[in-house]
Amino acid sequence: MKLFNFLTRKKEEFKPLKDKKAGMYACGPTVYNFAHIGNLRTYIFEDVLRRTLELAGYKVKQIMNITDIDDKIIREAAKNKKTAADFVKPFKSAFFEDLKLLNIKPAQKYPLAADHIPEMIGLISRLLKTGLAYKSQGSVYFDISKFKSYGKLNRLKHRKKSGIARHRIDVDEYTKLNVEDFALWKAGRPGEPSWSAPFGKGRPGWHIECSAMSMKYLGRTFDIHTGAVDLLFPHHENEIAQSEGATKKAFAKFFIEGEHLLINGQKMSKSLGNVYTLRDFEKRKLNPLAFRYFVLTAHYRSKLNFTWEGLKAAGRALERIKERVFFLRQTAPIKDNLKFRKKSAERLNDDLDMPGFFAVFWNNFDRLSLNDILRADQILGMNLKALISIKIPPLVKKLAETREKWRKEKKWGKADATRNRIKKLGWLIEDLPSGPIIKPLK
Ligand code: AMP
Ligand code: ZN
């Protein structure tokens, strides 16, 4: 399987560190608000990566952190006169609801930053000892000038370091020696949550939490680190510096980053205020899985512009697949399409080429067996298996047969009346060119 690795800027054959096991770390949400559908695009991409590895026979261990200590959280909690822990609670549960609605497989663990302060303190102490970090007015900073390979992920050596850094760097009110240095530990302030550490009371910077939690659960060197492209700099660059600086070992072997979801050509983001959440879909009675389908139609490394028309078209495509599943479960089995399986797997294994996967899927659509579709759904994640277990009540089946009989005898009035009776029972008869199928009314 080939995956595009941002460390080398090339598609590389994925070779796991340990037999058929893959360790994946994903930067998770900062729970100060509901996740917007841009964030969700990234989690869907990570889910497809995980499912592709699993379909290829890897046993995947996926860890996703939850940022529950952060400047924005502290600010918003104070505004709402709540403790940070109370403030984040509803957003944390909404995040898990969203994952479920999108059929995103749960990670093996969702560690919370607040539960891993000792691990972060340990790393910072190591960095201070090795001279890669320094103290300044109660805070601790990482000295990027001392870490020789700083910038390797973003190829900063090829650009002018400070030029690109300056506008994206953590601009904070703390005192540091160089503007590019970043905070590992922020000096405590009255009214803000803080923890005791050998280097003073305070709270961790954002980057250090990912280093601490990824290495705790996946080991010092692990297979894949994921996120969206906005995290490449400075977040992932800083994670590498802190982790490799402390362990002197390679951090993640692959950095795989998804492109953004746009709206009207602009990045969807909380700060621009151009966001939608799954709650907006609920109001419009739109199926969240249609959004999942919409996201999957684009390659994860391409920008994707969100439109309501696009979402609706995705919903129609999904309905067509569901109809086909209902049809196939009611007819004589079709032979498995091995050519489809081979070709679709080839597309997936070529850096998750989902547009290619869909092209193969739709080109073969009428020649796919029920098993082929369910196999494809191991990646698509449209919950199609659940359709198999929906039982058609015997009365509905019997009425459908009666209606077919009336139709064959060209007694259209009686056929329509029977169809209406079926509808009242919550089922719909649809006449496809290949014959009638029964499906539940939504
Ligand atoms: P946050 O909750 O802001 O920390 O972001 C959670 C995840 O969503 C991170 O991996 C971000 O890089 C990602 N993200 C933020 N905005 C977008 C967007 N418009 N499209 C795709 N991913 C995004
Ligand atoms: Zn992170």
How would you classify the helix and strand content by structural class?
A: alpha/beta
* Number of helices, where a helix is a run of at least 4 consecutive DSSP H or I residues: 16
As laid out across the biggest beta sheet, the strand order is 4-3-9-10
Beginning-to-end CA distance, first to last residue: 39 Å
Shape: elongated
Strand content: 15-25%
Query: What hetero molecules are in the model?
Result: adenosine monophosphate, zinc ion
**Which regions are unreliable across 5 or more consecutive residues at pLDDT < 50?**
161-171
Overall pLDDT score: 93
Major β-sheet profile: 4 strands, parallel
What keywords describe this structure?
442 residues; alpha/beta; four-stranded parallel sheet; four-stranded antiparallel sheet; elongated; binds adenosine monophosphate; binds zinc ion
Characterise the protein shown here.
- The longest helix has 21 residues, at 308-328.
- A 4-stranded parallel sheet has the order 4-3-9-10, with helices on both faces. A 4-stranded antiparallel sheet has the order 5-6-7-8. A 3-stranded mixed sheet has the order 12-11-13.
- The radius of gyration is 26 Å and the shape is elongated.
- It has helices spanning 37-55, 71-79, 84-101, 117-130, 161-168, 206-218, 232-247, 278-283, 288-296, 308-328, 338-349, 354-363, 370-380, 385-388, 394-408, 412-424; strands spanning 2-5, 10-13, 21-26, 59-64, 133-136, 139-142, 182-187, 202-204, 222-228, 252-258, 261-263, 266-267, 304-306, 427-432, 435-440.
- The chain has 442 residues and is of the alpha/beta class.
- The protein starts with a strand and ends with a strand.
- Helix 2 packs across helix 3 (84-101), helix 11 (338-349) runs antiparallel to helix 12 (354-363) and helix 15 (394-408) runs antiparallel to helix 16.
- Residues 161-171 have low confidence and may be disordered.
- Helix content is 45%, strand content 16%.
- It binds adenosine monophosphate and zinc ion.
- Zinc ion is lined by residues 27, 210, 235.
- Zinc ion binds next to loops.
